[in-house]
């Protein structure tokens, strides 16, 4: 980037959008590669590799999001804050899938509508950071920016951005996708067998028992339907699962941005649903410019600093035709600020008449640090933001259409509270996240049940 003042509007008007157009805009949160030739070589290789998803899948997700905008579906997006290459393994992938399947079953059953399932996985490898550098004991090194860029260990070697990681990240995403697709298509998601989704480490949890009751009653309903109709309900054997990640690393996204036969326009084929993080959602920034030209449905994180004009401009730039299914606004205000911050934004969007899906991320506005320096979130605040979100949309003639969560199927203690009432001392027992604290299985399932009961109270 040079320091000249950029006239963004005229740049946008005169340019015919291309996957590289963003390079003329200010790109925040990008890695600084010491060897530009090595970066270019990696990007060239990346752009010749097969994509991770197809335009058909992307367009069918867009249709499902349009249905969620109309109130006919609920959108569930969840997974790790940051995936890591070291955890690209069978157990982590299946356990995360099990939690998401259990949650989506609880939501489908309770809300009486189908769920759009979107994993924060198969590419969630790049992270925004509050500072470019980190200093420990007088030594300053580049910050860890996710496994797509560098490695978390605090050594100069590990922290140097390595372009080969882009190729590796693509391969790891592809392995993750391949395994998820094989599980889902091979019968793992079969509604006749919700017992496949039990996590072996969960012993006698009251919530596991509650889920069991729900699954049993559903099983009886499925059997009844099949007996009456004399047919096995084949459609119940598989579900749609989509992928998502924060499209932060723009060179990486650009390398997989393609045109496809019999479709107009460009698709970001690294994932079905890319989103822009709160720190890079500037109207005049490179991320918004990149997203403007792709046909995927897109998410934008909206934090407490966003105002009505900014949100209206984002819709105007990213969805000028008011296309259904295109825009998902993910608000993450924090339990203490949502009542003040959200209603004006709901009204601002209503004034545009443009369709959006409102999703609540009750995680990122509720992060705090304990006295002993551990990053955590209180379940009570997460739940409270979620409940307030449902209520505030309802009061403002809008509706909350989904939840965006950080969760894992591993046995972790990273957020306090929940059914087992974890406290600060529990955090030391099984804190594994390298970035943000995630909900564990029980907390995630409890949250889905609370979402259901909050909607039931409003009805
Ligand atoms: C995230 O989703 O991990 C994240 C960094 O969120 P936000 O952009 O909302 O801060
Ligand atoms: Co996070």
Number of domains: 1
Q: Can you identify the CATH superfamily?
A: Aldolase class I
Helix content, binned percent: 25-40%
Calculate the mean pLDDT score and round it.
Answer: 92
Q: What would you say the CATH architecture is? A: Alpha-Beta Barrel
Intertermini distance: 52 Å
Strand content: 5-15%
> What is the CATH topology descriptor?
TIM Barrel
The helix tally amounts to 13
Computed Rg: 22 Å
Order of helices and strands: HHHEHEEEHHHEHEEEHEHEHEEEHEH
Instruction: Give the low-confidence spans.
Output: none
What order do the strands of the largest sheet run in, or round the barrel if closed? 1-2-5-8-9-10-11-14
Indicate the structural class.
Answer: alpha/beta
Please provide the count of β strands.
14
């Amino acid at each position: 980037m040079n320091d000249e003042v950029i006239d963004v509007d005229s740049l946008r008007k005169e340019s015919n959008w291309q996957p590289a157009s963003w390079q003329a805009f200010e790109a925040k949160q990008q890695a600084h590669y010491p060897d530009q030739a090595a970066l270019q070589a990696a990007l060239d290789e990346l752009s010749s590799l097969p994509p991770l998803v197809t335009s058909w899948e992307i367009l069918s997700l867009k249709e499902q999001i349009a249905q969620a905008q109309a109130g006919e579906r609920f959108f569930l997006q969840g997974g790790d804050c940051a995936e890591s290459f070291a955890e690209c393994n069978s157990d982590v992938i299946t356990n995360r899938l099990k939690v998401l399947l259990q949650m989506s079953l609880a939501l489908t059953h309770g809300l009486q509508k189908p769920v759009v399932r979107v994993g924060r996985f198969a590419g969630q490898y790049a992270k925004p950071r509050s500072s470019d550098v980190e200093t420990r004991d007088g030594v300053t090194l580049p910050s860890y920016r996710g496994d797509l860029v560098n490695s978390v260990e605090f050594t100069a070697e590990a922290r140097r951005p390595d372009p080969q990681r882009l190729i590796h990240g693509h391969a790891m995403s592809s392995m993750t996708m391949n395994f998820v697709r094989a599980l889902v298509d091979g019968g793992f998601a079969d509604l006749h067998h919700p017992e496949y989704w039990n996590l072996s480490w969960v012993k006698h949890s009251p919530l596991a028992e509650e889920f069991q009751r729900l699954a049993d009653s559903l099983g009886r309903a499925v059997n009844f339907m099949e007996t009456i109709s004399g047919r096995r309900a084949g459609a119940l054997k598989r579900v749609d699962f989509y992928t998502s990640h924060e499209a932060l690393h723009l060179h990486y996204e650009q390398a997989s941005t393609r045109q496809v036969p019999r479709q107009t326009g460009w698709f970001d084929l690294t994932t079905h649903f890319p989103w822009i993080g709160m720190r890079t959602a500037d109207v005049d920034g490179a991320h918004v410019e990149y997203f403007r030209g792709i046909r995927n449905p897109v998410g934008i994180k909206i934090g407490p600093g966003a105002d009505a004009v900014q949100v209206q401009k984002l819709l105007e730039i990213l969805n000028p035709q008011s296309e259904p299914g295109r825009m998902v606004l993910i608000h993450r205000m924090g339990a203490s600020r949502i009542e003040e911050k959200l209603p004006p934004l709901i009204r601002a969007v209503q004034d545009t008449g443009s369709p959006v899906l409102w999703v609540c991320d009750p995680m990122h506005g509720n992060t705090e640090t304990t006295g002993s320096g551990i990053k955590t979130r209180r379940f009570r605040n997460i739940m409270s933001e979620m409940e307030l979100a449902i209520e505030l949309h309802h009061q403002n003639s809008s509706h909350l259409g989904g939840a965006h969560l950080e969760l894992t199927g591993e046995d972790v203690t990273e957020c306090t509270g929940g059914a087992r009432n974890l406290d600060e001392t529990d955090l030391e027992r099984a804190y594994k996240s390298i970035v943000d604290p995630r909900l564990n299985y029980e907390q995630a399932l409890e949250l889905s049940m609370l979402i259901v009961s909050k909607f039931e109270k409003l009805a």
